[in-house]
Every structure is written in C-alpha cells, then in structure tokens.
Design a protein that fits this description.
The protein folds into 2 domains: about 5-160, Rossmann fold, CATH 3.40.50.1980; about 175-295, 3-Layer(aba) Sandwich (Rossmann fold). Helices cover about 40% and strands about 15% of the residues. The chain is built from 11 helices and 15 strands. The protein has helices spanning about 5-15, 50-60, 95-100, 115-120, 135-150, 150-175, 200-205, 225-230, 245-250, 260, 280-295; strands at about 30, 35-40, 45-50, 65-70, 85-90, 90, 105-110, 125-130, 180-185, 185, 190, 210, 220, 235, 265. The strands form 5 sheets. It has a 4-stranded parallel sheet, sandwiched between helices. Helix 2 links the parallel strand 3 and strand 4. Helix 5 packs antiparallel against helix 6. The radius of gyration is 21 Å and the shape is globular. The N and C termini lie far apart (about 65 Å). Keywords: Coiled coil, Signal. This is Vitamin B12 ABC transporter. Pfam families: Peripla_BP_2. It comes from Halorhodospira halochloris (Ectothiorhodospira halochloris).
Length: about 300
C-alpha cells in the first residue's frame, strides 16, 4: 500500500466528506488533444491550470474566475499573477494540487510529466490534456474550455475573433515571395522547431518557410555549423525575455550569412509567439512585417 503524507491524506479525506453533486442534466463533455473524452456533471468551478499557456487560454475563454491555482511563470493576464502556485510545468506539486480540491486539472500534454498527470487521475482528479500544434487548435481549445467551464459565449466570441484576424494575416502575407527562416527557440544548446510545431505555421502564414522544418524532432537541437550550412535568409529569435535580443549578437559574427548580410536579424517577444494563445497573432503580425521587410 502506498504511503501518503499527512497533506495528501487530509486532502483526500476532505474530498470524501464533500456531498456528491447530482447531475443536473446531461454530462458536459469535451475531447482533449489526445483524443480522450473528459466529462463533468456540471461546469468546472475549481480549475487548476498546469502551464502558463493553459492559464492564459482559460482567461481568454472567460474562465479566469474559475481558476484556483497555476504553475510558476503563469504571468498573463495580470490577474493570473496572484494565483496560488502548484509547482512548475515540468515538476508539479501533486499534494498542493489535491489540496485545492479541483474538479478539473488542465495539463500540457508535451510539457507536463505524463506520470504526474496519470497520478492525478489515479487520485480522482479529472485531467484534460491540452496541446496546440496548429493555429486552428487555439480557437478550438477556447471553445472546449468554455464548454467545460460554462463560459461558452465569451469563449466563442474570442474564438471567432481569432479566426478573423488569422484569415486577414493569411490573405495579406501568405502568397508573398518565400523567405527562408531559421527560428531559434533556445540558445544553449541551439534549439529550433520543425514543421509540426505551431511556430512553423506562423512562418508559413507570413509567406516564409522553416529551413529546419524537415527534421523529425519537434524541437531539434543544432550546432552552429548546421545553421551556417542552411544559410537562412532571415533569423528570428525568441530570446530569454520580452525585450532581450542578445541571441542575435552571436549571429552577427558570421558576416557571410545571407541573413547577416541583408540585416534580416529579427526578434519577437517569446510570450507572443511561443505560447499557443490568442496573443500568438500579435507575434504573427510582427513576424509578417519582419519577413515583408526581408523581401
């Protein structure tokens, strides 16, 4: 028999003492991004968000008031900064999550520990696994979150607006002359993305192509020589902060690179392109303008 800490036992005991809620009608169900159907007897009132992106999506879907805890670095919108913390996205504090008595935990499928998400389910927590791989996944997620949280009207309005803005960008830029792009998501080791990652779709939306899109791994690691050999027409970095463009300094040393010669070295704040939320279109608009300049 597993040995639990007093904190876990207290949380489980309290949950058992709570009265069972009778279903008021049909179950509320939504299919998560792994194909698993998640069903609730009533809209979720106590949601734990297990990644910064999930937190932002919940607020955008009108469910912010229902979020009772989040992980570290969940900093948007401003209200989210005051939420209690239950660990980091890659190391959840299961005891703290249980203590919040959630009726729904929304995890990041490729970022959270699979074992910890499974453990939460074993302990009776409903778990929805979220993963956005293309732009349409963002409004679709908003709609599903709104359904589970009882905020469908606000979620639908946000989803509709996202689709309109996405289509406007596509109509304006997607047919432009191709620009070969290297996107850098991390610096040590040098890390990029392949064509299955959502940032590559943003690049295509702007009429560009990812020079490392063919690689098998979602976030491939590279060496400097690989980037030099690819000789991209533009280099775009996410940086280590909302205004820190230091990663571009390294590439300026390689004066024979096409991107350096043409001064096509660009920065996009990471929260506006590396989080799959409605703000991604702000980053997309900035990137499209940069690639237009590169043309």
């Amino acid at each position: 028999m597993p040995i639990y800490t007093k904190k876990v036992i207290a949380a489980l005991s309290l949950a058992l003492l709570m009265p069972l809620t009778a279903a008021t009608g049909e179950e509320i169900c939504a299919t998560d991004d792994t194909g698993q159907e998640v069903c609730l007897d009533e809209p979720a009132q106590r949601i734990v968000a297990l990644s910064p992106g999930v937190t932002e999506l919940l607020y955008a879907a009108g469910a912010g008031a229902n979020v009772v805890a989040a992980v570290s670095h969940a900093d948007y919108p401003e209200q989210a900064q005051d939420l209690p913390r239950v660990g980091s996205y890659n190391r959840l504090d299961v005891e703290s999550i249980l203590a919040k008595q959630p009726d729904l935990a929304i995890g990041w499928h490729s970022g959270n520990s699979p074992g910890q998400l499974d453990r939460l389910e074993e302990l009776g927590v409903k778990v929805y696994r979220s993963e956005q791989r293309d732009l349409e996944d963002i409004p679709s997620t908003l709609e599903r979150f709104g359904k589970l949280a009882g905020s469908s009207d606000e979620a639908q309005a946000e989803a509709d607006e996202f689709r309109v803005r996405r289509d406007e960008l596509e109509q304006r830029y997607a047919e432009g002359e191709n620009v070969e792009v290297f996107y850098q998501v991390w610096d040590d080791p040098i890390t990029t993305i392949n064509d299955e990652q959502i940032i590559s779709e943003v690049i295509r939306l702007c009429g560009g192509s990812n020079v490392f899109g063919h690689l098998e791994r979602l976030t491939p690691r590279l060496d400097t020589e690989s980037v030099l050999a690819a000789d991209p027409q533009a280099i775009v970095v996410g940086g280590m902060g909302e205004a820190n463009q230091a990663w571009l300094d390294k590439w300026r040393e390689y004066e024979r690179m096409t991107a350096v010669q043409q001064q096509n070295l660009f920065f996009v704040p990471p929260s506006k392109i590396q989080r799959p939320t409605p703000r991604l279109l702000e980053g997309a608009a900035k990137l499209c303008e940069q690639l237009e300049k590169a043309r």
